[in-house]
Amino acid sequence: MSYYHDPKMEKIFEILKEPKSLEELHLPGVFVKDLILKIIANHNTVKTSRINEITGLHWDIIKESLTELEKDGFCAPVSGGFLFSSIEYSVTKKGREKSRTISEDNPYIGIAPVNYEDYYLIMETQIKNRYPIRIPHEVVENTFKEVVGVEYAKESLIESCIIGKGVFIYGQPGTGKTFILGKMPDLLPPLLIPKFIEFGGMVIQIYDPDFHKECEEQPEDPRWVKICAPFVLTGAELSLNKLETNYNPNKGVYETSPIIKANGGVLLIDDLGRQRDDHELILNRLIVPMENKKDVIYVRGIPVIFHSHFIPAFSTNLDISIMDEAHLRRAPLHIFLKTPKLGDVQEVFKRNLDAIGEKYDEEVLKRFVNVYDDTENGGEGLQPSFAHARDVAQICQAVRINRDKDVVDREVLDEALEKHVLIALQRMRIDIAQVMRKTRSFRVRTAQINEAYHALLKYGANKISYESESLIVDLDDSVTPVQLVEYLHNKGIEVDRIDLIAESEKELRRTILEYD
Questions:
Q1: Which among 110, 298, 331, 342 is most buried, taking Cβ atoms within 10 Å?
Q2: pLDDT at position 434, please?
């Protein structure tokens, strides 16, 4: 037994033995016969072994259903040997007409679904008393072995998983928000889910291989699957419609929403505030399933309750004020990912070079850090970023191969840095996220010119030039004279006067052309 396969999971495995009769299957006999008939009609002639492979049904159930279909004149055996698994069945004219009729109502062909009541009972058993969780130390260590630094963030994520409460993470682009949130499911226990559910003769899809990763141990009943705690990631493409369960007429299934797919795991709304639909509407849609741990879908107009016991995670590059109090109560833990430390960025760069098998000079690591070091220390003063570390390592590989070199040296790195678009923009002092905003030009009069110059550089000035007894400073339009005075005063710099002398649009395209 282990954290990922505990006594409760073993007990459920014992319950989920493969059904050997229609009574044990808990599905209407008509539904099963219709499913098998559609398979025969779709193939025209098909072996019973293929029917078993598609439906996951026990041989006894297949044999019983085929006997009744044959007796009703819908199919007939046409060839085969002594073994039942080798017998081929062909559809009759009557069977094809019948198949066409039932396919118009329900075209689903695939593995036999699980009865809705069975799903609800098994899921309730797993989710009940799931939290708080005691996460073993070795699980924590293994989960975060690839994560450099950010110890405070790791602690919050661990505590989020222990009590099953949501988390709000924010910070500058490239600080590793999505990466570290993607580690959360490894802290959670696995889950047993049905691949498909039958309700009122219709089929609802639960299992999604895009989000559900299968575990090594699997139950005897092939209609169920043991998965790692799911991590359902949605981003700027998320819309209100995608948060609903929708019917797919081509497949004949209701495709469940991210809300239901994330049950037992983590639902991440990434890039919050960049969705086409108003993010307030999206957050409001999530309140009920976050609060009640249940969501309702409609199958032919009938409301059906599904479990939605997920941990909500919200990530944004914008300010924390993007969420109001009602929403933040559902994600009470927060993480502000600060600017990465230079040593951590260097370590991530090194790890990425190692991961792709690149050899490099030791000087390359020092040169990479120099890009982000303060100008006072001889660096370029760019914004450190874990994303840059990953991307530049990969570009280095491309440049090294293209230059027919054996190792990544300083020349290769410098060329890779020049080709990274965000680094190029930073070198031009262009913040791509702020391009659509205006620039304000201030005249700052002070006797402490040099001190003010260095302080304003750290404040994020786009440009600074000298005048007699004053500085001309370009800053984003969100900055006011009062804020400037307060900031400089806190730095011990006395200001005689600050004037707003100009306001202009930022021009990214022209700047790039001039730079080239």
A1: 331
A2: 53
